[in-house]
Amino acid sequence: MDFTLPPLLTSLVDRGNGLLWGSVLIYLLIGAGLYFTVLTRGIQLRYFGHMFKLLRSSRQSNGGISSFQALSTSLAARVGTGNLAGVAVAIYFGGPGAIFWMWMTAMVGMATSFVESTLAQAYKTDHGDNTFRGGPARYIERGLGLRWLAVLFSICLIIAFGLAFNSVQANSIAQAMEQAFAIPTWAMGLVLMAVVAPIIFGGLKSIAKVAELVVPLMALLYLILALVVVGLNISDLPAAIMTIVRSAFGFEQAAGGAVGYAVSQAIMNGIQRGLFSNEAGMGSAPNAAATASTRPDHPAAQGFIQMLGVFLDTLVICTATAAIIIMAGPELMSGEENNGIQLTQMALSSHVGDWGGMFIAVAILLFAFTSVIANYSYGESNIEYLAGRRAPVAVFIYRLAVLAMIMIGSVASLGAIWNFADLSMGMMAIINLVAILMLSPVAFSLFHDYEKQLKAGKEPVFDPSLFPKLVNKVDPKAWPKK
């Protein structure tokens, strides 16, 4: 079944994506990331080791959601089709050089992730059940006083993550399982609905517990296999790296006279798929960051931990996928049908045998499954923000809609959905980036306060008297109540 949009709407979506991704977002994402990097004096490099150190004290949550669980939830959303199918799409359409621009997006995106996650913690509200809610909608309203913009962001997020992206993730699962195990797509859709339903009806704590268990295990298994592949082809590694770098700047295409076009395609596909994968600046991960009961008790702590999420997603897991594909050779990318998850499956099979395709099918099942439940959690937080006291009914309807989109995504061809999701994601990113640029002085003040205490040999503690406007209050519209 093909899912298509009306011609006029298709044209508008395509033009919107061309404008957003062809120029606006590229400059805004990279520019904001560089700005945050400079103003924090390279926070992602200076405090690289500190990110890992914080994880050791992040599991205690006093009955709420720990920093580690919040990181696992955000990684569950980040680590999905973007790491397997998305990398393949970037290489197919943008060449190996797209991977270099994915790396650059991640490097500057780490600083962006710190700022948006710190702000999410700073402006979060007590949900009244030992958990918190927050994210761009809250810091846009509380920090900037722009309720209408916060509402617009929430609507874009619900459309993109709660509905469109969950269809995309379900589609990737169904296609991979059909190719590897000949399981009908409709049957896979029913299985997904049956497994996802009890988790999302259990609420955000249930999602955090599942993410905490599944995400580290699935990432570790995938990385081990990637390291095995690299080990088997270690002599080809230098050439693969040089191919990525040369392609990124058009040196591979110089002889053909298409340097400008090749470089533009590498940049656009690398940044677009990089953002889709690590979500830095998009405004999605802050929804998970805000839920954490941080240790140390300081908003900046979760900012550091969420920086680690960007690093693990793109610079580690996406690079592993890129190595598998590029080391398999360019001949695999000759067929039009091999431009997504199938390319990754065929590449791994060429390295380790037929079971490689089956392994990727299982990997995408886990990666995309955890993305579905994490994407749902982002939507739930924003549904609650919009619905207020009517949240119980709105959340129930939203849950049913998510399950329906999982089924639709499993059986439909989703080229149009991909394009629509990209447009929604682009609009989210613009709103969020403008907001965090305007609120960046707050994040910088919190960072300097944290850094000052750390250099004094203290465990950083948030002092409400220094930031009276950021004291977390119980949301008067929170659901449920204590």
Automatic annotation (TrEMBL):
Transmembrane segments: 20-43, 84-104, 148-168, 180-201, 213-234, 304-328, 355-376, 396-421, 427-447
Protein name, as recorded: Sodium:alanine symporter family protein
Topological relation to the membrane, as annotated: Multi-pass membrane protein
PANTHER family attached to this UniProt entry: AGSS FAMILY TRANSPORTER, SODIUM-ALANINE, AMINO-ACID CARRIER PROTEIN ALST
Source species: Vreelandella neptunia
One protein family per Pfam: Na_Ala_symp
Cellular localisation: Cell inner membrane; Cell membrane
Similarity comment text for this entry: Belongs to the alanine or glycine:cation symporter (AGCS) (TC 2.A.25) family.
Domain of life: Bacteria
Keywords linked to the UniProt accession: Cell inner membrane, Cell membrane, Membrane, Symport, Transmembrane, Transmembrane helix, Transport
InterPro entries the record matches: Na/Ala_symport
